[in-house]
TrEMBL record:
The keyword Protease does not apply. It is found in: Membrane. This is Energy-coupling factor transporter transmembrane protein EcfT. Its main location: membrane. The chain crosses the membrane at residues 27-45, 52-72, 78-96, 198-217. It is a multi-pass membrane protein. Keywords: Cell membrane, Membrane, Transmembrane, Transmembrane helix. CDD domains: EcfT. It comes from the Bacteria.
Amino acid sequence: MLKMALPLRLHLSLVIVVGTALLKHHAWYWLGAYAAIALIWVAVLRVSLPKLGGLVGTELIFLSVVALPLGWERASFLLIRSLVCLIAMNSFLLTLPPHSFGIALKSLPVPSALKENLLLTGQYLEILLSEVTRMQRSAQLRGLKGAGGWLRYASSAMIGTLYIRSLERAERVYAAMVIRGYNGQLPIDFTFKAKERFALIFAWAIAAFFTLTSYLYSP
């Protein structure tokens, strides 16, 4: 993995996600451009493809339940757009050192209350990733090997079990944080260097160009 500060990695991931989410509906050409950028981001961060595929596949099962009732034509664009967003953010989360989400979160220019909520959400996502890994290992021990076996395992009642176990563990983690004096404050300061600030401005400029042209030149 390239040596890159955690806040910078978070911001670049958000550039991809926000730009993709704001695309005009059925702007397939620009969605393909963002998909290519997301795959490059995966390569830059050197994400474990089996872990990424298992996590994204599980999340897409939930999204398909919501999107498919909208009609196949609309749902196909929404699912692929969601896939690009999930690839970008999960790549960041999967390469995040344990318990370091708060370091990256401190750099976001948002109110402290929102940062606290995001911090707890990030902590929950870390717990969810841990539970997914444990369930994948459990599935392999039961003879369900390969992507197809894991998909059958995840698409059954075990999905509900996954979120119940994650929620219970998240509650225990939050209780432990409160006992240790957590009050919602993040005692970490971070400022971007000149090169990092230039990289962010350049990335946002590209994202703005793609998104605006999707509205101006799409049929």
